[in-house]
Amino acid sequence: MKDYTYSVTEINEYIKDLIEGDPYLTNVSVYGEISGVRPRKGHIFFSLVEENARLECVIFGGDNMGIRLQEGRMALVEGSVSVYIPHGTYRFICSNVRYLDQAGMYQIKFETTLKKLLEEGLLSRPKKTVPRFPRKIGIITSRDSAALQDVIRTARERKAPIEIYVFHTSVQGDSAREELIKALRKANEYDLDLVMIVRGGGSKEDLWVFNEEDVIREILKLRHPVVTGIGHEIDRVIADFVADVSMHTPTGAAEYVIPDASEIHEDLDSFLEKLIASLSNRFDMEERRLETLYFRLRMIGRRKLELNEFKIERVKELAAKLRKKLMDCFEQDQEKLESLGRMLESLNPLRPLERGFVLVKKEGEIVKESSDLKRGDVVSLVFKDGTKKAQVIG
């Protein structure tokens, strides 16, 4: 072996010469299923896939030539393999694409599963109602995913009074199917208001686990309302069809599910105004009825009409029913006002202090992260019964 050190560029250039000089990789034809079509700067990037392999391809200038590739179609592609030196990657540079008269493997599996679920009536079952103000939300996704961070960021921005339960699972790869089924079963054991299934975008193969029949059947077993946010706007998986609500992205699902604290306050204020108006209208109506009854009784008295015992008892009975109805109305409205008070109290930011929590402030601002403090900083510790000063020593 020669004692020589190569640069990265030299290695990639050598590999490029080997591949592009190989007659078996030049002006050849390859067939496979079209997947992951991505037009970019006039070019069309896509993949040819089969069950256990993928070949990255590109048609340079294809978008400008009006070429439109169809996902899920089988195609015969002509061209040569080339190496892109800056990235050390290879692609199949296409010169021609011809569709074959057959659907791709993934497309066939997708349509077969979808048809089976349709025939069983599982896609036409009644949808569960997603609560407007959920308190406990389960999220099925990878704990390391950007999708989870999107949901958490949305919750923080909206300052929603919710509890989030994360059920970790891989969302692609060999173990994804079993892990996803396990996470779905685990979520079904919890007392939740709804379950979100979220994942960022990817190729058809990356998202395929959300088309697996046993995964779909496990989703259908969930006793909670299900909201999906899988992939990007162009992505569509079978899990979306069986969900109670389907959004295009994880962020879209989070914005649909998580209420904004300001909206909660506005709804409570609106409810209170309507309740007061309803009470006022009801009192006015009952007052007019009493005045009408009193006027009629006076007219009867002035005309010196003799009321028999039956009529007198009837008047008493009506008066008693009227009094009872008023009391029932008062009790119902009092219960609504008490419930409204409890809802407002649950949003009180000082409520946690009664359970032993402490609010930390620096220069009048609430400290949310430990990184906001440094050694020597003087902070205020707000307890339920008063405030104390403290200094950060570490």
UniProtKB/TrEMBL annotation:
Q: Report one GO cellular component.
A: exodeoxyribonuclease VII complex
Q: Which residues cross the membrane?
A: none
Sorted keywords for this record are:
Cytoplasm, Exonuclease, Hydrolase, Nuclease
Q: What is its EC number?
A: 3.1.11.6
Its localization reads:
Cytoplasm
Taking the record's annotation, the residue ranges forming a coiled coil are: none
The record lists the catalysed reaction(s) as: Exonucleolytic cleavage in either 5'- to 3'- or 3'- to 5'-direction to yield nucleoside 5'-phosphates
One GO term of the biological process aspect? DNA catabolic process
Q: Which residues form the OB-fold nucleic acid binding domain?
A: 6-97
The Exonuclease VII large subunit C-terminal domain, residue ranges = 126-324
Gene Ontology molecular function: exodeoxyribonuclease VII activity; nucleic acid binding
* Keyword Metal-binding appears in the UniProt entry: no
The record's note on quaternary structure and interaction partners says: Heterooligomer composed of large and small subunits.
Q: What is this protein called?
A: Exodeoxyribonuclease 7 large subunit
Organism of provenance? Thermotoga petrophila (strain ATCC BAA-489 / DSM 13996 / JCM 10882 / RKU-10)
